[in-house]
Amino acid sequence: xxxxxxxxxxxxxxxxxxxxxxxxxxxxxxxxxxxxxxxxxxxxxxxxxxxxxxxxxxxxxxxxxxxxxxxxxxxxxxxxxxxxxxxxxxxxxxxxxxxxxxxxxxxxxxxxxxxxxxxxxxxxxxxxxxxxxxxxxxxxxxxxxxxxxxxxxxxxxxxxxxxxxxxxxxxxxxxxxxxxxxxxxxxxxxxxxxxxxxxxxxxxxxxxxxxxxxxxxxxxxxxxxxxxxxxxxxxxxxxxxxxxxxxxxxxxxxxxxxxxxxxxxxxxxxxxxxxxxxxxxxxxxxxxxxxxxxxxxxxxx
Length: 301
Fold this sequence. Notes:
The chain contains eleven helices and nine strands. By secondary structure, it is an alpha/beta fold.
């Protein structure tokens, strides 16, 4: 591993090793308290953040490293100064770059022109750190991730892309259930399905909500991604049948509910499900730090 740009860039062994290391760091953080001693990590954020910013900042501190946060007070990346110059300059001082951007091309540019590891902390195409935390959370409840049946319900977005690649590499079955016109990117689907076939898994897409039956975990996200100017009123009727509620959970026979947060309570998911016994949302949030620390230790430790 030179960077973490997308889960699809990993091998199955690399993914499993990251999940194993994340579990070890969570179980025995003191063992890794000096893993990044003397290392500095720059975080570039074009988008607002709670979990990503806090989990990276505190996580880097727990590993004995130093974190520097840069927002967009000097203008968006590539505007005031080119992405190439940003990357090359930061590489003079920092040991790694964490980037949360609107355009995936920005993350790619940082990795191409910088000389230090780059971690994608979210782009319009992928959210690999979230995907790692999600599969770490599932691994805490299922001994064999290849046997997990995961359903993603709602808008086929960047989180969905990363989950598809994770499930594909693990050889699991994942069903993506979206309203017509809101499926994940066709190229990403083809790539994920190819990887799934190589590892004995399966990625299935459908608009039929009844396909929810027979899944272990149900995952949903906001119906409108951050930065999208679409009005909720314009899509609410189309998405309403895809709300995750008690009836849908029971129909699926699912034991767990997942959401990357932030959530619109009462919109894509009901309070009853979010706060229910099988909800993993806080486990996912906590595991963001441990999964990201596993990536940092792998790249820099």
